[in-house]
Amino acid sequence: MTNRMTLRFVSLAENVGLARVAVAAVASQIAFSLQDIDEIKVAVSEAVSNAIIHGYQGRPDGWVEIQCDLDRTGLTISIEDWGVGIRDIELARQPAYSEDPERMGLGFVFMESFMHGLSVESTPGQGTRVEMRRLVTVSGELSRDAQ
User: What is the C-alpha to C-alpha distance for residues 84 and 134, in angstroms, rounded to an integer?
Assistant: First the structure.
């Protein structure tokens, strides 16, 4: 079984909840636990919030696009914006780093800790694409299908 969902919305903070619910609905189609789905939702919230807050610097006129690819082994989520981009991805992925002193700088830390894979591509002035992968586990171990 494979399934794909694409969702595109404007860069409004209210749409973080929409993104969480939509991705959770897709994830619930396979053997993820409730804890798995909660962790996926946190990772999605962080990625979408980053796109809105940092990518578009809070402007409500940008687009954020989520694509989910689901198969029997797990879920791949890509979140893309066409905002200002990230100048130094490695620095941005460091715990507690943020260009905004009002922010904690833990978004990428949460994404990495709750997902089984994270990649970030960004071009200053053109935008950012975050891709995350969550594998199905059974009692904390990867399922046979995911190995």
Answer: 27
Q: Distance between CA 39 and CA 91 in Å, rounded?
A: 24
Cβ distance 129 to 121 under 8 Å?
yes
**pLDDT score of 143 more than 60:** no
Residue 95 CB neighbour total at 10 angstroms: 10
Which residues face 134 on adjacent strands?
A: 75
Pick the CATH number of 2-146 from 3.30.565.10, 3.40.190.10, 3.40.50.150, 3.40.50.300: 3.30.565.10
Element housing 108 (H / E) = helix 107-114
Q: Is the pLDDT score of 138 beyond 90?
A: no
Q: What is the CA radius of gyration of the chain?
A: 15
E-assigned strands of the chain? 2-10, 63-71, 74-81, 117-123, 127-135, 137-138, 141-142
Domain boundaries, the chain: 2-146
- Tens of pLDDT, residue by residue over 74-98, are 999 999 999 999 988 787 767 655 5
Active site amino acids: 46, 50, 103
